[in-house]
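Supplementary Methods S3. Complex input for the flavin mononucleotide-bound model.
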Amino acid sequence: MFRSLRKMLSPAAAIRTPEAHAMKLLHIDSSILGPNSVSRALSADIVARQVALHPGTELVYRDLASDTALHLTGVHLAARQGTPIEDAALRKDVACGDVYIDDLFAADIIVIGTPMYNFSIPSQLKAWIDRVVVAGKTFRYGANGAPESLLPKGKKIYIASSRGGVYAPGSPAAALEHHESYLIGVLAFIGLRCHRRSRRGYCARPRRARRGDC
Ligand SMILES: Cc1cc2nc3c(=O)[nH]c(=O)nc-3n(C[C@H](O)[C@H](O)[C@H](O)COP(=O)(O)O)c2cc1C
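Predicted complex, serialized as structure tokens:
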């Protein structure tokens, strides 16, 4: 009896239980290499696993390489202050930034595929960051000057990262690692703590590095 109860309460049983609240998963890719991309394959694996874990998950997919936001300009900043925009294309692009922020508010799980390009993230992903790290929307400065997140708490962030070189602490190129460290840092700045980082078979938790399944 107890054994069968234990079985019912096991994680495997939990996987099969339909969830009351449909999880919302935001999946972002930024590699320019389309179907040959390593980070896209990694992010797709993570998404597939999450969907299997949470039946009924609602997916939003943003392919930043094929649908790239423009670089931030003074017009974008002025628009945030309420200045009307004449140009229709720019108006659409500004609205796209608002959609990105809505995506972030809505998502329970966020999966970001990012290759390393020139020691950092792709510029397409940086353009996305410039649209979502917005004072007064996703964060604010608190009384002591420290940033405070304005996003709902409890989101799970997965980073699917790929790169050609080795940047482990102590390695010759360690000082050039502005890729995962930057992305994890800027997401944490707006209150999104990296849950797992997955890099071509290597997996690490922020505080406790380990190898294996991720
Ligand atoms: C434009 C470009 C720049 C790159 N810069 C670096 C780099 O600075 N350091 C590195 O280790 N690998 C670099 N690489 C290699 C990629 O990070 C590596 O091939 C990775 O697997 C690409 O991910 P993707 O297949 O998802 O695009 C670069 C590749 C490209 C295409």
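The radius of gyration is 19 Å. The longest strand covers residues 109-115.
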